[in-house]
Amino acid sequence: MPPVPEITDSSVLVRIPAPDRSWAATLPAVPDDHVLTVTLGHPRLLRMPVDDLVAAGYRIAGVASEHRPIGDCVDVLVPESLRLLHPAWWRDLVHRADRVFDLRLGPVQQVLAAELALHARAAHA
Fold this sequence. Notes:
The chain is α+β, with helices and mostly antiparallel strands. It is 34% helix and 22% strand. The protein contains 6 helices and 5 strands, in the order βαβαββααβαα. It has a 5-stranded mixed β-sheet with strand order 3-2-4-1-5, sandwiched between helices.
């Protein structure tokens, strides 16, 4: 399995709604055998076929706690290189998103620091 990309200032965090157990099947497959990390906004989102997620090129980096959930969403960390190399895939992913957090913005990094730490640890695992 290829390594998970490092977080850089040109990375973005893409927040995608996950209203039910089928959320993993709605993500477009990551191109060219890349692997991207996702964090889950609530523990109930773990109740899905993990094999589908892994087969599509995603790996779970962490889950929000039940007493401080983010909600029914998943956040995908996407490096700039993948966005530039695969614009059609990028448009497909963004089309599904509620929000895209640009990590070049300092306040975004501060607010999402705990979540970004999960993605960073997954890159070194």
